[in-house]
Amino acid sequence: MIVHIGYFSMLAAMILVFYAIIVCVTGIQRNNHNLIQSAAYSLIVSFGLVVLAFLALCHAFAVNDFSVRFVAEHSSTDLPLFYKFTAVWGGMQGSLLLWELILMFFTTIVIFRYQKTNRDILPHTMVVLSIISLFLLFLLAGWSNPFAQQFPAPPEGLGMNPLLQNPGMIYHPPSLYLGYVGFSVPFAFAMGSLLRKKLNNDWILTTRRWTLVSWFFLTLGMLLGAQWAYVELGWGGYWAWDPVENASLMPWLTGTAFLHSVIVQEKRNGLKVWNMVLIITTFALTILGTFITRSGVLGSVHSFSKSNIGPAFLVFIVFIMIFSFGLLFFRQAMLHSKQQTAGFFCKENSFLLNNIVFLVMAFTVLYGTVFPLLAEALAGKKLSIQAPFFNTIMIPLGVLMILLMGVTHFLGWKKTSSDRLVKNVFLPLLATMAIMTGLYIVLAPPWQFVLLAGATLFAGLIVSMELYRSLVINRALADKLKNKRQAWIKSLLMDKRRRGGLIIHFGIVLMATGFCGNFFNQETSFTFSPGEQKQVDHYTLDFKKIRKYAYQNAQHEGIQVSVSKKGQPITNLLPAKAYYKTSPQPMTEVAIHRTIIEDLYISLSSINNDGSATVVVYINPLVNFVWAGMLFFLIGILYSLSYKPVQFKKLS
Q1: Quick one: what percent of the chain has pLDDT higher than 70?
Q2: Residue 563 and residue 593 in contact, taking contact as beta carbons nearer than 8 Å
Q3: Does pTM top 0.70 for this prediction?
Q4: CA–CA distances in Å: residue 581 to residues 22, 62, 128, 607
């Protein structure tokens, strides 16, 4: 009964969204506010119906309703309730329903938030969001129905993929979806402004916070996914240039370019056409990422089984590109800015060069991800582009991006004299060269490390200097207050936008520091028996005993290893193999000893018949700096969100 309520709620939502499109378009043509309001109410009710459908699917998982095919394929009676909930988006149908739920939630917020402040372009924006929503509901009601039933119902389900039985399942996919779907809002406002022919900066200012929040969640989702891969897959790394990793990286790169580029439009009224291109590209790449993940055309540890919705997504992507760029072509004359930059060294040019680097990086990832598919489809050749291809191109581009990130802080709008620029960069450049010379003598590292570490150190020094300068200047201004506590708080709340950007950039510096550690990773494998010790670099591993234990819905068999360093015991680790009833292959449960300097990472390959164990041990320097960047992203985003932008004013 509840399953039927879920399906018919989804159908009713689809009908109401279709009604909203027709009524809203009619209201725009007739300038009838009542019709537009009716469309808005329809979308709000549709959101409630999608919530009902989502809850119905959650209920089906909770009660083990295996008459629902999707539940039977992704759950089992022994699956913990926590994972039954996360299994809702553990497959194609449920993930699309979650996507639709978030989209309708954002659409409802847009309707309530902007019905008074953006009345000119809101109806057009609603139409764009509704078209996206209708496409997803059409898939859910037909090809990708999460409520499709089977009779007779099997007594047991196939179970959840053991790789997905990780706490990361509760936060990694929703974070990515919040990022993906969040970019739909600035895209819809951009298209709404083009349709309405209201091409000032209102849509940029309106969607600034949407862009920031979407970028943050997409970044967070990628980093949480990397952490998940690090602790779950047992290969000692966190990024493998997997097709689905690439699918999230592409819109992140173009979205980051857009995030920087809109500042030029806001401050200098420039790059209007460029910003339209960037937001269209970013949104199209989010749909392309969904196509890659859901269609099964590319192999991936993340991707779902092959389905027949791939062509539908491909058609939708083509429709988006033709409609968006066609509309932009017909409106481009209205978007050109008369304002020109006055000098070569200025923020405008630096942001533009930054954008070009991001787009080249995105194209590189797109080529490396999609080219094997095209080669197989057109020539019947199976090709595989591996990590060396990406690293060879992306490392130099990443170095350039980090250098630009640092230098841009010393550039002013319109023009910066070369003498002033040289004076500002002299000290951090000198310090960087001195430190890197010392590192090169001591470590004799590869040239890639020298480039990346040098750029990271250079940018880190500049960001730290500018952040300190911001605090000192604002503290001096706030010290005029008699109450010192109030002065301190006020100084922290000043200069929000600039300081937020600096803090986020410092997070990037920390992440890049973590990436530098990859050049010094150590990997070794060996077999040892209980009572035997092995020396791995400066760690001594003592195999104590084999342990068998049950945890949740799996039986585990592992080895207890005592770890000491310079004769001093530091920790006990328990790498293991997990055996699930629903999986023929055991899963690897790694054991990690974390420090700020490095991780000691042990992966159990096998426990042999003679009682010995074969393990792979990794020493990963600086890896925790990658995760530390997330904290600074959060602080920087909170600073930036609290800043209230103002409409463009021509700078003298």
Answers
A1: 91
A2: yes
A3: yes
A4: 51, 19, 46, 19
